[in-house]
């Protein structure tokens, strides 16, 4: 079917098989490979993107379900001048990553959290990241980064 | 993992959705949030020929105060249930339990109707609608009908829905008895409950203690006879037939049921 998704502000249109998953549309059609395929069973959160502003796991969604809607991937967070998003800056400053595989999903989950709850407690951050696994177990710094980003954005 | 090929159709109304599924018979399935169906399709445990997307139908996504009851559209997401002020005030059990389903990403997509129609005995909301004594509304080619939650869950992943019938609404009477609680035990945050329990007033329903969600009848009758929470909870596993799997033996599930029911009854008493 013909699928048109606004990805990071630009329209991406393609004729794809009906069974195409959103994550494959993003990686293989749009050429945006920050979104990782981890467990492929909606457990690990590595494929998290924003759909109309809210975090979703793109391995458990058809591209057809995103047709006509707006998706933001990690590549879409920095502004046009390459200035990193507050959450990206905080992950760098707080060393919120080790191997980096879970990072795009963690960052997108954090962006979604802060849009719903700009001033989360540490416990709320940990709960909000339940759908994202870090196999390096680097959770402490990830949580610290999300709290720092909230602080920088004036939430705290 | 990629699902087997199918034809995707997007319905623009409930009537059209029912029509489209009726046309393709048992090979067609409704797709709402997709968080039960797509994983099954990726594993090829479900191989529908046609998917009819109802995920964008505004007429299936609402939470309405109808005076004596609350009406919830079947395609309302767990996230919308969890953040609803109306549910928070009048049906806190449903709002709270919906906020415990999966993780934020899952709650942004998964729907109450999808969870009920999927009828996984380990899912949270089927037991919640049992404890709330909800009425489910289904629409098929022959029209709409009401099904009591108590009659809805028929077996493992099996419901009273006929082929081609779409769950459209969940109606829940405003509870007369305010005490409520929801407890579940998981090994990791996003896991399905090994055992769970939903309590509303004197009604107690169990997650994952049988092939379907079940009311803990022996606990309820002990409560009705005036038993204290700890005393009533001792009967939590009576009449159940929990499965054995890598998470738990039958005896362990029975133990969890007794512990969780006691905690839930005590919490419900405190909340009431």
Rg of chain A, please?
A: 15 Å
Number of domains of chain B: 3
Strand content of chain B: 15-25%
Number of strands of chain B: 14
- In whole angstroms, the N-to-C terminal distance of chain A is 46 Å
Which architecture of the largest domain in chain B would the CATH scheme give at its second level?
2-Layer Sandwich
Strand order of the largest sheet of chain A: 2-1-5-3-4
Question: What global shape of chain A is seen?
Answer: globular
Individual helix count of chain A: 6
- Uncertain regions spanning at least 5 consecutive residues of chain B: none
Structural class label of chain B: alpha+beta
End-to-end separation of chain B in angstroms reads: 47 Å
Sheet with the most strands, sense and barrel status of chain A = 5 strands, mixed
User: Would you tell me the structural class of the helices and strands of chain A?
Assistant: alpha+beta
The CATH topology of the largest domain in chain B corresponds to Uridine Diphospho-n-acetylenolpyruvylglucosamine Reductase, domain 3
Mean pLDDT of chain A: 96
As a percent range, the share of strand residues of chain A is 5-15%
The most extensive contact between chains is: A-B, 31 and 28 residues
Q: Any low-confidence stretches of chain A, pLDDT <50, length ≥5?
A: none
Number of domains of chain A: 2
Overall mean pLDDT of chain B stands at: 96
